[in-house]
Amino acid sequence: HRQSLIDDQREVQQWLVLPRVHPASVALLHDPAGDLWARQWGDSLAAEHWDVFDRLGRWRGVVDVPARLELLEIGSDYIVGKLRDADDIETVKVYRLKRRTG
Asked: Per-residue pLDDT tens for 20-46?
């Protein structure tokens, strides 16, 4: 049985092509101010990192949100997201967002 599993894995590896590079961003959102939020690629257990760009494409900074938080809404001074716990139970969370001006 073990040999057939190894043979199956080799067969899959022959036709399955894994990418050599990853996208810089894996999700895009916009906020009421017109800023674009781009979630950085990565698999962190601590936080997800979102690059924020203004309407002209200038980088404004990074917002870190808890890992596994699915952003649902970005407001002028808050973010709302859905968080799944270890038992796959969803909870809606609201976090304060402090923006720097300038």
From this structure: 776 677 889 999 989 999 998 876 677
Beta-bridge partner residues of 44: none
Q: How far apart are CA 47 and CA 81, in angstroms?
A: 13
How many helices (H) and strands (E) are present in the chain, helices listed first? 1, 7
Which residue, among 35, 40, 86, has the nearest Cα to 60 in the 3D structure?
Answer: 35
Whether pTM exceeds 0.85: no
Q: Can you read off the two tokens belonging to residue 98? A: 């402090």
SS3 state at 7: helix
Cα separations (Å) of 7 from 1, 11, 17, 34, 62? 10, 6, 17, 52, 45
Long-range contacts of 45-53 (CB under 8 A, 24+ apart): 51/25
Structure tokens that stand for 46 in this block: 């601590």
Please give the backbone phi and psi of residue 25, each rounded to the nearest 5 degrees, phi first.
Answer: -130, 145
Rg of the chain, C-alpha, whole Å: 19
